[in-house]
Amino acid sequence: MAEMSEKVAIVTGAAIVEGKVNIGGAIATELVASGARVMVADIDGDGANALTAELGGKFGEGVIASQVTDIRGEGDIERLVAATVEAFGTVDVVANNAGVFPERDGAVGDLDIEVWDDVMAVNVRGAMLLTKHALPVMLEKGRGSIVNTASTHAFAGDLSLTGYGASKAAVNALTVYTATQYGRRGIRCNSVCPGTTTSPAVERAPERFRELYQRHTINPELNAPADVARAVAFLASDAANGINGMVVRVDGGLLAHQPFFADQREFD
């Protein structure tokens, strides 16, 4: 487990959904368990409050708080950073995790511009805005760690999720630009790229969907949100001080093999 004592973190897209933590909720859980104090932010206020209540009950009062936040709006982001500083005194870590992948995000020729714009607003602009407004607090201290959640969809095409894939490629670009521009001033910025993860959204999907991704994953099981969370916590911690501007796939080996891997296994 990463050592995060005395650290203060903001985690976006963190909630309990249908009784289970999403990836952001798992990140918040891992950070709090590692000793950090955490502000969770989600547009789903009930889900964020449920996560805060659960972790507060387990780890004690004063280690976690929540803020209802629409990360598409700069005003909401400013209020989030201000609330974090007011509650915990500073910001050491930002986990830009919030993201959307709507069903209407289809093929290029069928894509409504409103869907494209909203995906970009949440997945890219939200990450940029929180980075922008957390940076002054971090720069004043001369240190800070930002971990962006991208996706394996940033590396390879799909029959749908055009906006999602393009947005996550943009998140990876934002990562290296942030690291390059602020690394000499003590700021690290890295990204993790999950593959299909057994989040509540994926568990709602048809079984054949999960079986398809499992068939193409090297690991025996799909990653759980906690598997992604441990990678985020490591990159956020001082143990990863030597890592900056890196894009790390946390996909169970989904993109590590030849395209015909799953077909070859049928002959084993």
UniProtKB/TrEMBL annotation:
* Molecular function in Gene Ontology: oxidoreductase activity
Question: Which UniProt keywords are present, listed alphabetically?
Answer: Oxidoreductase
Check the record and name the Pfam families matching this protein.
Answer: adh_short_C2
Question: PANTHER family from the xrefs?
Answer: DEHYDROGENASES, SHORT CHAIN, SHORT-CHAIN TYPE DEHYDROGENASE_REDUCTASE BLR2146-RELATED
Report what the protein is called.
SDR family oxidoreductase
Its transmembrane ranges are none
Q: Which organism is it from?
A: Amycolatopsis acidicola
- Similarity-based family: Belongs to the short-chain dehydrogenases/reductases (SDR) family.
* InterPro entries attached to this UniProt entry: NAD(P)-bd_dom_sf (IPR036291), SDR_fam (IPR002347)
